[in-house]
UniProtKB/TrEMBL annotation:
This is Two-component response regulator, AmiR/NasT family, consists of REC and RNA-binding antiterminator (ANTAR) domains. The lineage of its organism: Bacteria, Pseudomonadati, Pseudomonadota, Alphaproteobacteria, Rhodobacterales. InterPro entries: CheY-like_superfamily.
Amino acid sequence: MSRHLTHHFSGATAVVLHHSDDVRDRLTARLKVLGVHAVGRWEKLEEADREADFLILDTDLAHDDQFPWQRAQAPMPVVALIGSESPGRLAWALENRVDAFLPLAALGNIYSALVIARATFDAKVEQRDRDAETARRSSRRLDVIRAVLKLMQESGVDEAVALKQLRAFAMVERVSLEDAAALYLSENPAARRGMQ
């Protein structure tokens, strides 16, 4: 599957969460060249930081208490800066589902890290949306059964014909089968006419 990658970040914002003033300064300067307005922090993120387009964090010393969200729930792409390559710290970064890794020795590659982080984050959001839609539709499967039974009773048809009518109604309304069933069961007069 091909995916359109963002090649410019002009106007984007970033938070650099790192214990070293030098690293924060070097990264904010590099990001400025890319058109990214960055702020450097340590200790703790602020609630307003949720609005940033990127988070770039110190994998060696960062910890969950620094974030105003639950573990692995960052509302933006996260780039993890790797210094020591400690297995425990890398495991922590993976548990937090960071979107890209960038060695401290390769800060000049921040552009690539941003591109990868954005694409990875977008893919996670798409998957989360698909999973939520699947769960929503699964929770309404009983509505489909109820609608088919009601159509069978009201129209005097068998289940195959009733299901075909419900599918045709869903296509006309351009909604899922589950949503068509809910419409029909809602006693909506327009839905009733559409099923006849």
